[in-house]
Design goal:
6-stranded mixed β-sheet, alpha/beta, two-stranded antiparallel ribbon, 14% strand, 8 helices, 269 residues
Amino acid sequence: MRHHVRLCHEFGGTNRRERGDDRFSSAAFPVTMIDMGDPGMIGIFTSEATIASSVRRSAEKGILSGSELARVFAWLRPNDLVWNYWVNNYLLGENPPTFDILYWNADSTNLPGPMYCWYVRNTYLENKLREPGKTSVLGTPVDLGKVAVPAYVLATREDHIVPWRTAYRTTELLKGEVRFVLGASGHIAGIVNPAAKGKRSYWSCDALGTDPDAWLAAAKEEKGSWWADWSEWLARFGGARMKARARPGNTKFKPIEPAPGRYVRYRAV
């Protein structure tokens, strides 16, 4: 059975066919920048000076802390994500509202320091990923022009981390059939939008060109979550369906513990 693979920035996945691995029949790029020619506000935080600073800190700890990344993302929208809490929580003494997405966003992840520095330099600073063979993963040069499997490229209209027009550039880099969909809302809320809620909307248009604004002018708005559209798109490339397992694990791999797992009890640095 051939599988679908969800690719965000997993560069190694883009050249598996180059290594003779043809298990994947489609790919998805949700709120992802590949061509970093216009990274938006986040470009302010990805300079030679910030990389040098990250190198120094990662040399001390071995990691770039998730809390540091969270601060960077917050300062991309300071009125909503910084000063709002400063006023309401610190000055007025109010407790933060109970909000599932806010809680999810606070679950930050530490990154290996050398990996982070390599990533920022090769993508944001030097924009090498879009150039065939300029970067390598596991010794294999990455050439996105050889990615021939159908791809689903999703952006969100108010995304402050991945500008949707920049995400649109991915449609010009891949060789195979590409579907571009633009969701409403931002980087998190636009993605975490269960179809059952019937919230928000998305835009789609089969005719792709080089101008994202021309695409949007021709696109049709659909009410509800983009999940339904993605599910329908995926069904074209999936193999035979099977019933879900009644219990996790098997005779070789036993379940460790109930979800969500012990890692949630550890505080990120």
